[in-house]
Amino acid sequence: MTARKSVVVTGVGATTPLGGDAPSFWDGMLAGRSGVRMLTEDWAEALPVRFAARIAVEPSELLKPVEIRRLDRSAQFALIAAREAWKDAGFEGKFADPTRLGVMVGSGIGGVTTLLDAYDNLLAKGPRAVGPRTVPMLMPNSPAAYVGLEFDARAGVHAPVSACATGAEAVGHAIEMIRSGRADVVLAGGTEAAIHPLPIAAFANMMAMSKRNDEPERASRPYDVGRDGFVLGEGSGILVLESAEHAAARGARVYAEAAGVGFSADSHDIAQPEPDGRGVAEALANALADADLSPADVKHLNAHATSTPRGDIAEVLAFTKVLGSAAEDVAISATKSMHGHLLGGTGAIESVATVLALHHRQAPPTINIDELDPEITLDIVRDKPRALPEGQIAALNDSFGFGGHNVVVAFRSV
Amino acid sequence: MALTQDEILADLADIVEEVAGVDKEEVQLDKSFTGDLDVDSLTMVEVVVAAEEKFGVKIPDDAVKDLSTVGDAVSYIEKNQAA
């Protein structure tokens, strides 16, 4: 029996509310900045939630007008992040052997602004005004397809969809795609561009969003006693995952090992998490087993922690259940406190954050905790970054999505 | 007042530049949409819809397939524009 292929991270890219590339995203987190702002559009006035975490650098500053015209905003974000990750990994132009390059990029909702704008056009001007590119723009695999076209990926272009677990799920499937031998390199991640009155109204009516309109920068406050829901963000994160063998052969810089992934499904409710955290615990245990980690190896968790009253607690309970007393030695960061919740993009930018935390040996902070919820007894990194220990350590990124999807990605320092 | 051929060409070139990302200087009467300007079938639909709006003409799908060069499109618009 041959040994399983190791997978490593050799490039990262991100376009986020804290910065238009991965280094500025990282710097923004270390500084403990909030990317959340009041929405200035007229349509925001009637909404119960009038703030969001808009992207820091508009795609029109980076892409050609024809790319802006042809790509849904979610695909624009993915293309920007993918170009950065590709260059960061040391690649130039297209891949040498396209049949060995894959793409795994999803989004939670797909091209929702394209769809709704096209519908507005249909109602206002009739069917002739519905653009012929509407379908290729709104389909949820569009970001993956455009990333694949950009770099000539022919090993397989896939678009996992699992609501807010999408980005992490993509990273997990990319690890498996490389292990299976189907590709040497996979561009993996997620993207979302859903800041529009319809999704905001719908999420707000689920009672899932913070309504702290008088204090938007302080609205995303995981683990704080006053947390009242998530804050919608937008953006994309893309990682270049590569077989360790392929990376070594070309002398690539390695950020971390993508050590493994754990999946599970709650099979409980379409929107509510299973209250005992059973599914989350199963995914955590699966990730540790898949990555061959013991609880004591784990020194950092980039938590899902969306700032909802029940979700934050359930996640921490599951974490304690699986890691036992080792959970107390884990530096936990809830970075959504700064960049908001990017839905299908969130697991991807948080995987970028987790990889950079291992690379720089620093856990980013959690901001906006005025009073820690007494039910949270673990070690939350608050307000300032924290140094992570030397030696070989592991870090986890977990993500959960409506539908009961649970994904935990494990990274190991190199 | 009817537009001249040069005026139609200039406006059409603006449309092709915006829709297809082709430099408007490239949009000349003898250029083929698919062969020279890389305007594929979806992009051609976008050009046609924008041209209909700009010039106030109807360009039915049956007519579109005969518009292989920029000159064909300019002539069609010139003949069919609102007086």
UniProtKB/TrEMBL annotation, chain A:
Domain of life: Bacteria
SMART domains xref list: PKS_KS (SM00825)
Pathway(s) served: Lipid metabolism; fatty acid biosynthesis
Keywords per UniProt: Acyltransferase, Fatty acid biosynthesis, Fatty acid metabolism, Lipid biosynthesis, Lipid metabolism, Transferase
EC numbers: 2.3.1.179
Keyword Lipid metabolism attributed: yes
Residue stretches making up the Ketosynthase family 3 (KS3) domain: 4-413
Physiological role: Involved in the type II fatty acid elongation cycle. Catalyzes the elongation of a wide range of acyl-ACP by the addition of two carbons from malonyl-ACP to an acyl acceptor. Can efficiently catalyze the conversion of palmitoleoyl-ACP (cis-hexadec-9-enoyl-ACP) to cis-vaccenoyl-ACP (cis-octadec-11-enoyl-ACP), an essential step in the thermal regulation of fatty acid composition.
Protein family membership: Belongs to the thiolase-like superfamily. Beta-ketoacyl-ACP synthases family.
Name of the protein in its database record: 3-oxoacyl-[acyl-carrier-protein] synthase 2
From TrEMBL, chain B:
Annotated Pfam families: PP-binding
All residue ranges annotated as the Carrier domain in the record: 6-81
Annotated positions of the O-(pantetheine 4'-phosphoryl)serine modification: 41
Entry keywords, A to Z: Cytoplasm, Fatty acid biosynthesis, Fatty acid metabolism, Lipid biosynthesis, Lipid metabolism, Phosphopantetheine, Phosphoprotein
Pathway(s) where this gene product acts: Lipid metabolism; fatty acid biosynthesis
Subcellular location: Cytoplasm
Principal location listed in the UniProt entry: cytoplasm
InterPro entries, A to Z: ACP, ACP-like_sf, PP-bd_ACP
Lineage top rank: taxon: Bacteria
Post-translational modification: 4'-phosphopantetheine is transferred from CoA to a specific serine of apo-ACP by acpS. 4'-phosphopantetheine is transferred from CoA to a specific serine of apo-ACP by AcpS. This modification is essential for activity because fatty acids are bound in thioester linkage to the sulfhydryl of the prosthetic group.
Disulfide bond in keyword set: no
PANTHER family in UniProt: ACYL CARRIER PROTEIN, CARRIER DOMAIN-CONTAINING PROTEIN
Function comment: Carrier of the growing fatty acid chain in fatty acid biosynthesis.
NCBIfam families reported for this sequence: acyl_carrier, PRK00982.1-1, PRK00982.1-2, PRK00982.1-4
Family: Belongs to the acyl carrier protein (ACP) family.
Name this polypeptide is given: Acyl carrier protein
Organism of derivation: Catenulispora subtropica
